[in-house]
Design brief:
Blueprint (H helix, E strand, L loop, with lengths): L2 H22 L2 H42 L2 H7 L2 H8 L3 H5 L5 H8 L1 H21 L3 H7 L3 H24 L4 H16 L10 H7 L5 H11 L5 H31 L7
Helix pairs in contact: 2-7, 3-7, 3-9, 3-10, 4-9, 7-8, 7-9, 9-10, 9-12, 9-13, 10-11, 12-13
């Protein structure tokens, strides 16, 4: 396959991903349900932090909730990308294609990644102003690229968990995605300070957001942040490798058992 042919296939897959996402999530749906949900969730956690811990609690949960709302797109919504092939019994066609399946799903998942990054930015500005945290917003703007790193690492995790939904039993996608999101919320330190339950902190080190949020909090108080940020990148690469291996192994199993359709 020539480079020209390869890039044509990549561009076509990207276009399909955008059209597929917009067909399943028309603008009126995103503007009236999905995006407001992320906005109000961020606002709720921030106000809850103020009730529990005053201004410091609001600031702590505001920083964490900006990362948490990203998972609504990079894990929950992203899981629908491979599941659409299962629902339409079209997975066997991907096996006949020239692009590797993990590459296809990565390219088709770009709308969720973009929406996650966009809503993190919107929540930063809107919720920050509404809750009277203008100073914190100004401090967070220079470190917003750290949130983009967490968008990427959580998307890599979403690709891995989506493989369970694609090849597992019917309904496994919802269960796995919810477990993944709740585990990330519990172990990332986004809403609850770490150091209280050792095993939670240990699990969080291999899940997305935990190290990225540590890097952001360290940067804000002038402590070293490079190590935690690199750890976050390593976690994302690890989950992406898990995704690649999962799709490769499970696709080989489908081929070996001669079941062309995942149903």
């Amino acid at each position: 396959m020539s480079w020209a042919d390869r890039w044509w296939r990549i561009a076509l897959t990207v276009r399909i991903g955008g059209r597929e996402h917009r067909a399943a999530n028309p603008w009126r749906i995103s503007l009236t349900t999905t995006w407001p949900r992320a906005l109000f969730q961020c606002l709720f956690f921030t106000l809850l932090g103020r009730v529990v811990g005053g201004d410091d609690g609001a600031a702590y949960m505001f920083i964490g909730s900006l990362a948490i709302i990203v998972t609504l797109f990079t894990i929950s919504e992203l899981g629908d990308v491979p599941m659409r092939d299962r629902w339409s019994a079209a997975f066997y066609r991907l096996r006949l294609g020239r692009l590797p399946i993990p590459v296809v799903y990565t390219l088709r998942a770009w709308p969720m990644v973009v929406e996650g990054a966009l809503m993190a930015a919107v929540c930063l500005l809107v919720v920050g102003v509404i809750t009277g945290q203008g100073g914190l917003v100004r401090s967070l703007l220079p470190v917003f690229p750290f949130y983009l790193v967490m968008v990427a690492t959580s998307a890599a995790t979403g690709l891995a968990t989506a493989s369970v939904g694609l090849f597992g039993r019917n309904g496994a996608d919802t269960l796995v995605n919810n477990i993944a999101i709740y585990l990330i919320i519990a172990t990332s330190g986004a809403l609850i300070p770490l150091g209280r339950v050792p095993w939670i902190e240990a699990v969080g080190t291999v899940l997305p957001l935990r190290n990225g949020l540590e890097a952001i909090r360290n940067r804000l108080i002038g402590e070293p942040w490079g190590g935690p940020l690199l750890h976050e990148v390593a976690v994302g690469l690890g989950w992406f490798l898990v995704a690649v291996l999962s799709y490769a192994v499970l696709t080989r199993r489908v081929r070996r058992t001669d079941h062309d359709k995942v149903t």
